[in-house]
DNA sequence: CCCAAAATGACCTCTCGG
DNA sequence: CCGAGAGGTCATTTTGGG
């Protein structure tokens, strides 16, 4: 969820000049904020030993700092390139976030080498927000300051252009960190996969995991993950059918009450992440890897309401004793829209709607279909060809029969109801019809999400503090409210102003007693800001987010370039913020 | 009445999984 | 082989403020 229309408008493209950037990456450091480390990387190269040079150079050419690379090689050996990649990625992700968390917990997978932890590294070359000289960021030209800190000029320029000249140094550094992470993924493409502009060879990108799983043999040595983990990985390549996740209330046989969560993932704080289930290959594996290796729960909302909505959810919530919102919503088109039954032809067998999308069918299409059906009224049933045309269009645009020979797209009110929102939730405040469809199409299905979140009610009878990223029209907030979980403090981050207004107005309509803080941009949410919020509220109990899917969604044939795409890379902000909160949480309990 | 901004509609012809 | 898909781009029409 979350409107990202603003993101594209400011001329920043994560993928601009990819091939040039990758080349330019050779001698630079990935996320080294000061000059010393750049110099130091040369020494690290030689200390890594002559036998390592090939592997070492390989990673250096991807832009990882030399010191980090040699450290990882020491720890895991050089033959296990995939593992090294993973560790480097993970570490540079941590690195790009401020090191509040000196106590980066030793990865259980690498426990044997506990002696050489990351600590010395992080204290060397990480520039935590606390250490950041405030005076510099206030006085000096931020561009100059960033370059002085060791960032590449084009990175600094990009960050300043994107965030504006008045952005704080912290925000700029955060931004560059995320941009680097997105780029690091790109750099991981095997050389022959690198995009080339030879005529029609249009950017065919593959994600990190694609490369790991399909491009190379699985590492055998130093693979400390359990057999169970391997099973997860092969299973995760196939979406479950039926898509009922750990169970849906309408089918008691589907319910599973036990699962194993990796130790790193165990809450509190609890997190709940959502995105489209049918993302390009490997995307969910990458997301899962970042989110502490938690296995996704794939659920189709057609088991909750009358419209399909195939989504993957990664969360660390308990799955015992879930309960649904009551009353259970109607689960067929006829139950949801009883008045339409009289117009429904016998040859239209649909009982469920397809996914409710952000765009809707046109009036012209309604006309064409009406004429097509009318023209063969002399028959009892239209000919097969006409039926097929009409049904194809109806399925494609989610049309319903609203009159004699007349189909029409759903109205925003009807979409609201299907998704479990109160009537007129998105109405008013000057929002246009088009924008209502857009906001609703990007939203959660409330009943589905509420079923998953229902376990919180017993755990937090006095209410929760919620951090809601990419909130959109507040699906999570509505779900918790309908469950009767009191909302103490809610921090909601949403790009679109109309969506923020919708949530704000809902907040007032429902007489909430807590505080609602709304922020414009996830980039604003750095360690300092989080620290302020968490100390004011006493930490967060739940972090919810569904990051933009524009570059993952199947119907996007133009820029479906996976997680590293312009919009969808905001996933890394979800991870960045979640990881910060997780690491800061022990201070607030 | 003019003009900018917003809305609309036609076209795009993808990848994935069953 | 078929169908589903929180989409993008462009030209054109409509809306709304002065």
Automatic annotation (TrEMBL):
Gene Ontology annotations for the cellular component aspect, listed alphabetically: nucleus
SUPFAM superfamilies: S-adenosyl-L-methionine-dependent methyltransferases
Entries under PROSITE patterns matching the protein: SAM_MT_C5 (PS51679), SAM_MT_DRM (PS51680)
Enzyme Commission number: 2.1.1.37
Region (Disordered): 95-142
Alphabetically ordered keywords of this record: DNA-binding, Methyltransferase, Nucleus, Repeat, S-adenosyl-L-methionine, Transferase
Family: Belongs to the class I-like SAM-binding methyltransferase superfamily. C5-methyltransferase family.
Protein name: DNA (cytosine-5-)-methyltransferase
Organism: Cicer arietinum (Chickpea)
Lineage of source species: Eukaryota, Viridiplantae, Streptophyta, Embryophyta, Tracheophyta
